[in-house]
Amino acid sequence: MSYQYQENLALDAQQRYSVKLKLIGLDICPYKVPADTWINDPKQWPAFEYQDVFHYLIKHPRIYSAEAMENYRSLEAHTFFVSGWVQTVFHMKTDSGHYVLKADVKPSWRVTEKPHHPWVALKKSGPVIAAHCNCMAGLGETCSHIGALLFKIEAAVRLGYTSSTCTDRPCE
Ligand SMILES: [Zn+2]
């Protein structure tokens, strides 16, 4: 993965990318953020739910229709997630209080193939603000790698690996 990812994009894609970064309060491309800035601690993740996955993915009907989402377990993105091809998820907080989460996603079971690098930006309350991936489809904000990353985050919240579930709240 090139450190100069943003600089190597075509001009119009580069402009769209800058707008996206501004939207989430980043002045530097996530691909340039130093490794030690990223945190491996699901306890700090936002309260991301299935409805957030659903809303984000159907917003881009070129790939996922509402009908396709009804049957989401058959989607390639979901297969990537359940096959374990989404690696460890790391996150960082932006200056505007949003969260950027990223993970490498292997394209298949073959170890020799290079992973893709999706990232997603979430509000603290859950909804997706923006997403990106370095694959060709990822430029348009929806590819199966982004979808797979969203499914993994959603599952972690649902299974109680984060602090944003009801099981973690003090008893009242
Ligand atoms: Zn991708």
UniProtKB/TrEMBL annotation:
Keyword Zinc-finger: yes
InterPro entries associated with the record: Znf_SWIM
Transmembrane segments: none
Highest rank taxon of the organism: Eukaryota
Limits of the SWIM-type domain: 118-154
GO molecular function (one): zinc ion binding
Keywords: Metal-binding, Zinc, Zinc-finger
PANTHER family: ATP-DEPENDENT DNA HELICASE, PHD-TYPE DOMAIN-CONTAINING PROTEIN
Protein name: SWIM-type domain-containing protein
Organism: Sinanodonta woodiana (Chinese pond mussel)
